Amino acid sequence: MLKKSYAIIGMILTFVFGVVVGSMLSDRPTSVQKPQQAVSKAAKSPENPRIAAISEQLAKDAKNAALWVELGNLFFDDDRPKDAIAAYEMALSLGAKNADVLTDLGIMYRRTKQYDRALQLFQEAKNLDPNHIQSRMNAGIVFYYDLSQVEPALAMWDEVLRLNPKTTLGNGELLQSLVERLKTTKP
Fold first, then answer.
1. DSSP secondary structure string, 96-150?
2. pLDDT for 15 beyond 50
3. Architecture of the domain whose range is 98-187
4. Which residues pair with 168 in a beta bridge?
5. 106, 138 in Cβ contact below 8 A?
6. Nearest Cα to 39, choosing from 66, 23, 15, 5?
7. How do residues 105-142 score in pLDDT, each as one tens digit?
8. Is the model's pTM score more than 0.90?
9. Separation CA 101–CA 121 (nearest Å)
10. pLDDT averaged over the chain?
């Protein structure tokens, strides 16, 4: 019975999003999975009932940017970057432009190895909120770990330290310690 419900939800979502949202997607990059595909796929994901619930809500209210952000966050947490990208892009197209959404979208583009797009989104977040630390932290991560560009990474992290000198890394180390270590070991 549960599988049949998911199949029905999937069909409804495909139809609704094809009709209601399809015209809004015509200018989206072709490399990004269309939101109706992501939501249809999500509705068939019994491992995360919250995704299915949000998908059902979106079938009734496809222009609800907050629901798209929430769906993107769920995909983010489930490590489904392509689905998260589709949901966040849809949220942005509906006006949910804020630094956190832009940064989360950038992180998802990083996970798909689209580093230039990730950096572009981190810059947009920084422009939107000049005190946004996470966008700078993530830009530094992309520059240093993905592109092997020490100078731009240090520039981003210096900005972070100006905003909050006590910023820590995921392992608990102070960002200041990493920055000092990199500055003393540069060629």
1. ---HHHHHHHHHHHHHTT-HHHHHHHHHHHHHH-TT-HHHHHHHHHIIIIIT--H
2. no
3. Alpha Horseshoe (1.25)
4. 174
5. yes
6. 15
7. 999 999 999 999 999 999 999 999 999 999 999 999 99
8. no
9. 9
10. 82
